[in-house]
Each structure stands twice: as structure tokens, then as C-alpha cells.
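Q: What would this chain look like folded?
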Amino acid sequence: MTAQTAKTLLLFGATGDLSQRMLLPSLAALSADQLLDPDLHIVGTARTGLSDAEFRNLARAALEKYLPAERRGGMADFLNRLSYVDCDVTTPEGFDDLARVCGGGEDLAIFLSTAPSLFEPTIQGLVDAGLTGHGARISLEKPLGTDLASSRAINDAVARAFPEDRIFRIDHYLGKETVQNLIALRFANLLFEPIWNSNYIEHVQITVAETVGLESRVDFYDGAGALRDMVQNHMLQLLALVAMEPPSHFDASAVRDEKVKVLRALRPIGAGESVTGQYRSGAVNGQIVPGYDEELGRDSDTETFVALKAHVDNWRWRGVPFYLRTGKRLHERVTEIVVQFRCVPHSIFTGAKMTANRLVIGIQPKENISLSLMAKVPGIEQDGMVLRSVPLDIAMPDAFVGTHRRIAYERLLLDLVHGDQTRFVRRDEVEAQWQWVDAIRATWAAEGLAPKTYSAGSWGPSAAIALAERDGVSWHE
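A: My prediction, written as C-alpha cells:
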């Protein structure tokens, strides 16, 4: 059954940082590209008391700051879509005004970007105001809990008001062009899928490296750490897309069915298969930066770096390690997937140094795909052919990003409005992710594992290098 396109989009937390940096610019870009229905009404709400005109001024300032000038076409038309209702979600009064402006709960898409502690009162307010009726759908921004138990509590609260087919849990990595292209790469090309298994792939690396420190996320991050902030959601979603079986169709149910099978097949992390770290002062991009403890203003055992050696215990991936690493204040900002193929079984080139093929999928800051191949070195040889590894790169600069570099939220907001759940995370996925992560944290607690220090601007603690090198593997840098 095809979902009805929403006629109203309701943004909770509309004056917040996420809204100004991502949501409003994304919606304005979609509007400029005429991808939104001309009659779509966008209602912003937050505790701040603003008039419609004041909210439009806030939106205009956000677009001028965060949206490239060439993508601001039709700004006046977009701003005219906006209206605003101030609402304190802990009291019922504001929800009556929301119901009036939104015209009831029919064909309503709700984007909830608030603190998790406000999820339950917000949902109850929506129920009481009649804004959860047939055709209404809700999108939830992370974090969805801090462990399996708290995640279930949040999901139970949402499920009391909305069925699963109207709940859209966001992982913004799933909106990135190259992440979406991973499915096309695997399942639209005969070249890759027959060799996408343990017979031909030696290992997989997934890196999500940041150069920034705490910034404005001090309280949240110290209570979360790298494992819960990055591995539990973004990195496990990337792993699932790399490892999943071919879905029967490209639709929400089929794709997510295959992803959850991968997550449930993850082997519990064993002794010596994880490394944690915490950055100390150092130099990042030529600038001296303080250590985590200095930024925080106190000692903490929260990890800002984690490296894992994971295994997917099924026929396709038996014996293939998945090396995951993520951290703050690292040498370079990069998110990439590296698929390392095995060497040829027999070389006919006597004395030639053979390098196995490697597929590198760059997600950010550059979106690209590169495949290394063995090729002959130009020239005339008398003692046998001389070979070298050369990259096969996509030549077109806009092959993956298009004419404009789109914000990941553009794709996700458009899918929310149209009711397509394919790029959103289902409840059983979330719970499988938490179950695996909770077991890792329990192992750390049992072993008394403390984060190892590393200098800001490095690639993390030396133990992370050893984690891979014990298997003869080097991190791709």
C-alpha cells in the first residue's frame, strides 16, 4: 500500500542547531529544485516565543549562513511556506494551537528533534491533540536511548501512538549519496556480487574519523562515548549494507530484512578484539588543541576512540574480519569503507611484486569510489614484465554528488514527506545494534578496560594499529 504524501510537515525543535544547519537548508533546497509539493505547509515549533515573521527571519538567516548561494533560488516562496507555533511540550496548551495550525492529524509528517527526555511528553501531547491519526507519521532523531533497555522504553512510548510502518528512525548516514550508491554498486553490477564473499575478500575496514573535539556536545558526549555515539548507529549501518544478502526488491521491508540478519549474525566481541582511547593535547591541522580532560574540565573514563575487530558469522562472511575504528581529534576527517580482496592464487609474473585489488568507497569529505588494479609499468623490459598498482577512479567530478552537493537530510526529509521508509531504521535493527554494543560495554566493565591515551592529530592509540597488524593488516591511511 502506497503511503499518502504529507500535506503538512511539523518540525519540533525548529529553532535549534540541527534545524538551522540541516533541516531548514535541506527543505529550502528541495523547494528550490521543485521537489516539494507546492502546497506543502511547514510548521515550526519550539519553546521560544516567535511570530511567523520572526521565524521566517530566523530561517532566512540560517539559509544565508548554511546554504550555498547557488541553491537559494525561490527563497521567498520557501519562506512563505513557513509558520510557527510556540509550544512547551511538557504542558498541553501549546498542542491545541498546533492542532489548529496543522489542520488535525491527517496527512501530517512530524520531525522530532528534541532531547530524548521530551519524547514521551511530546508524543502524549500529540495523542491528546488528535495529531496521531491515520496518515500521520513521525520521524525520530538520535539518540534513541543509551542502551537496549532505554531504547525499548522510547520505542514502546512511540509504538503506543504510531504503528511501525509510520515510525521513521533517522540515521543521517543513510541519506548520503555514496552510502546509497553502495547498494547500486553491489546489486546493479555483475562485476562485484559474484566475488562479494569470503572466497575473494580478505577483510573489510570501516573508518569514521573526526578532527573535531567536544565542541558544543560536552554533556551528551561524556555520557555516551565513541561506541554509543558512532558505532551503535552509523558504523553498524555501514557494516550491514556492506555485508547484507541481496534483497528481493528495493523496498523498505526487503532491504531492512536483510540488514537485520547481518546485525543478528554479529559475533560478540572477544578478548583482545577491542581498543579504546582518549585524546590528549596535540596538533590538528597545524593548530594546538587541548586534551579531552582539559576540554571537559575534569578526569573521565569516556572513550573518544574505539577500534573493533568484528565478525559476521554466516556462510558469506565466515572468517572475514571487519575492522572498525572511529574517534575524535584524529589526523584527518574521513569516512570510508575499504574492501580488501585476496591475492591472485598464482602469479605468472616471475619476480613481480603483486598487490591485491582494493576497493575504497569514500563517503566524506569526498564522495568517490576507487578500485586499485595491477597494470604494467610503461616501457620495454628484458627481464620480465614490471607491474604496479594503479587506481581506477571515476573520472566525472559529479559522478556521485550530482550538479550540487546535497545535504543528506534532503533525501531523508523528502522520503519522510512521501512515506518511504527504505532509508530509515526499523525497531528490530536498533535493538540488534544495542544488544551487540551493550555486550561490548559489559566486556569492558568486566575486564576493567580503561581508554589508552593518544595525541590529538594522530590516528589513535598504537594498540589500534596492533589490533590489525596482528593479522598482517594495515589500516588504510
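The chain has 13 helices and 17 strands.
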